[in-house]
């Protein structure tokens, strides 16, 4: 009976290639507790339905000519109902077949850009290889819970498992430790990955070379002075 709330039923995965150059996709899926409806291009999200905010969200970068799907949210709500009805039918027909469950095969934590102390950056928690969707991801900084992270909608992999990427804005300070905690129903306890801001980050790239140059120049000038001194002394002797 557990399965009731767990089953994620993938009703539609559509992939169209144009001259093998671009891949356009639409994923609609549901479980009793979760639903997803996302349009994408070349692996990137173009639009998805946010069933909590009850509207279509367009997570597109500022440089694109915005693409929108008028009526997209209403259509997604319809799809979700169809998906749940199909799921009930399958469940009845298959006599409550057991749910497949795969724990995440990989959880990785890393920064978006090279770390510079005091410069804004993002921490990324990349979770892949799980089924069904979704995972819950939560973050800590120095063991205290932090809020303000965001997570994308589950993205389906070629093997039918899912990937989700959570992102946290952060400003690296030496010694700070971050963690991302991943919960999934196939995990008996959460998977946690840590990130520590280490000293190997460059604090100010200008300091090293200019100190080196300064010391070199000073030694050179001392050499010239000493040389001149002996040259003069030598001349006096002869
Ligand atoms: C994720 O969080 C939601 C809301 O707190 C909770 O209902 C759900 O059980 C959690 N899922 C997992 C796999 O822990």
Automatic annotation (TrEMBL):
PROSITE patterns: IG_LIKE, IG_MHC. This is MHC class II antigen alpha chain. The chain crosses the membrane at residues 207-232. The keyword Transmembrane applies. InterPro entries: Ig-like_dom, Ig-like_dom_sf, Ig-like_fold, Ig/MHC_CS, Ig_C1-set, MHC/Immunoglobulin, MHC_I/II-like_Ag-recog, MHC_II_a/b_N. Pfam families: C1-set (PF07654), MHC_II_alpha (PF00993). Belongs to the MHC class II family. Keywords: Adaptive immunity, Disulfide bond, Glycoprotein, Immunity, Immunoglobulin domain, Membrane, MHC II, Signal, Transmembrane, Transmembrane helix. GO terms for biological process: adaptive immune response; antigen processing and presentation of peptide or polysaccharide antigen via MHC class II. SMART domains: IGc1, MHC_II_alpha. It is a single-pass type I membrane protein. Residues 1-20 form the signal peptide.
